[in-house]
Amino acid sequence: MSPPLAAILSLSQLMVESNAGTMFELVKELHDGAEELKRHTTNPISLNAGCELFIAFVTLFPHESDSFAELKTELVKQGQKYAKEAISYRNKIAELMLDFIKDDSVILTHSYSRVVMRALLHAHKTKRISVYVTEARPRGLGVKTHEVLTAVGIPCTVVLDSAVAYVMDKVDFVLVGSEAVVESGGLINAVGSNQMAIIAKAAHKPFYALAESYKFHRLFPLSQYDLPTHNPSILSFPSLPPRPFVTPPTTSGVSPPIAKSGIDESLNVTPTSSSERSMSAEMTAKNPDVDYTRPDLISLVFSDVGILTPEAISQYLVAMFAG
Amino acid sequence: MSADLHGSQRAVETLVSKLRRRQVVGSREAALETVLVLRQVVSKARFSNIDQLISLIRSVGKRLVEAQPKEHSVGNTVRKLLHHIREEYNTAMTGNASSSKTVYSISNFVLQGQPRKQNVAPKSEATLTLKENDPDDPDSFARVLKPVLMEAIQDVLDELETVYDNISKNAKDHIHSDEIILTIGHSKTVETFLKVAAHHRSFTVIVAETGPSYNGHEMARALSSAGISSFLVPDSSIYAIMSRVNKVIIGAHAILANGGMFAITGSLLAANAARVHSTPVVVCAGQFKLTPLWNLYHDFGALDFADPSSVLGFEEGNLVDKVDVLNPYYDYVGPELVDVFITNDGDHPPSSVYRLIKETYDDDDHEL
């Protein structure tokens, strides 16, 4: 179950157990609950989308009932009903996507996304497709995609994140899932999506995003660093020790090169037996998890609400949350 | 009674065969004929609840669309009619005490935004008492609803008949004096637009020949007979003269859901040349050309083909077997190349087309 739906269900549960007497208290409790949820996860964006949607719905619900308790039960019922229905949204999106996938298409996708999987498996029933998937470091979820697709019989190859430009000319279109779709009409997804979108635009390939409607988020990021997941430690440079530099260690390079070490050590580290090196956990921590793709790079967004251009998403979000 | 039914069925069959044989020429004519046939169908139809009527119209619409799938205005008219019918039915039913309340759910909230009052003026001023599926009097529902539906259909017909006038209403505001306009093909909409503007302004029109159909020749003749100074140029010079052109005004065959359009071959050439020179591209098209479809096939799949002999004649006997000749009749022009659509319902940029489609048609009707 995806985070926004889980958030909606847990907030509904919160309402059941709350003893708020007025709308104001109830909404305050919901806000506190949402804050609590967000505190416990490193990537709160999609969670946030679900919470905001539910809270906006609760606030704007037209109530004809006179008793507050009745209203609460109605809201809880709505929340649970929505979560149940929302499971079917992926099928709806897969159906919408089907017409856009031609026979013999070569598709490029990023990391692992359940809605993209559903769309690809659905298309596989009636059409021949082959898929390139990026490794999506550091979590490497692209390999999971590869396993799932190969098990079903779809030809699939994992490509390096750095090989996206290399492979782009062979691809018919790019298909990605989403963590959230934001008010500007842009997309927040696993890091690497923005890169892929820029390269797709340069190569004149369509870039399609699949997003269920509970991922529509009220955020309006002005740049990559405007995202709530961004913090000062990401992409920060290490603080170097004051000069003069220490003499290089005489031991052979057993310890992997650490970011905080002096500049010269990297020059004097003797190569390890393997020819590949990998980043340390500390290095990886300085890298972002998600990035923001601008709306002008996205061709279409497929959602259970319909097939929308990025401007249309913008209008939807304004209609939902503004006023 | 059954003769009436056969009468309307015969009308449908006649239109189906005319569409299949391409005897109906032009999107507006196709739309008009469709409305007339559907009016006959609705007036002779027998139904005791709204679903029967809607499925009847959908089945008729499906047959018409399948007869000529590239003539999008047929399907659009059917969808528009269904939308009107549902609207009339809903306003009639809200007057009824026994109407079911639509429960407001989160998915509705996402779909429509905040709950807001419907401020659409209902055609039926008097609250109609509608009884669906009445066992004693099965025709009561139909009897009560039909006059309202006939009015709605008449509205659609009126709109189609006044398309050219409405589009040309503000023609003089779009063209300044002494401008040089480029147009391509022979679109009646653009012709009327330019003729109306000519009453108030003096300007020059450059018409591209539009091979291989050479519709541009008729356009140039029609414009010059109206006193507009026109030049006829071959298609190859479109790019060359673009730096002197102030505006490109073209017609469309169909406007797609993403804001792109199908237009006569040569439009993509003109639009690209205009983009390079930052010249505005203005498209004049009636609202009945708005199609809730997408350009699913980036190559020829969605287009229509004309007779290849106008490209390579059969006299070239020895070439005919060796060469594959394609004569696509339409181009797909993407939304990024068009600046504004002038329709009988106002002017809209390509990015608002999705909203127009949402307002004009119902979501269920996208697939007939």
Structural class based on helices, strands and sheet pairing of chain A: alpha/beta
Indicate the radius of gyration of chain B in whole angstroms. Answer: 23 Å
Shape of chain A: globular
Query: Order of strands in the sheet with the most strands of chain A?
Result: 3-2-1-4-7-9-10
The coarse silhouette of chain B is: globular
Task: Output the structural class of chain B.
Answer: alpha/beta
What amount of the residues of chain B lies in strands?
Answer: 5-15%
> What's the total count of β strands of chain A?
10
Strand content range of chain A = 5-15%
Fraction of residues in helix of chain B: 40-55%
What is the terminal separation of chain B in angstroms?
A: 28 Å
Order of helices and strands of chain A: HHHHHEHEHEHEEEHEHHEEEH
What does the largest sheet of chain A look like? 7 strands, mixed
Write the H/E string of chain B, N to C. HHHHHHHHEHEHEHEEEHEHEEEH
SS elements, strand count of chain B: 10
Poorly predicted runs of chain A are 252-271
Query: Helical proportion of chain A?
Result: 40-55%
Radius of gyration of CA atoms of chain A, rounded to a whole number: 23 Å
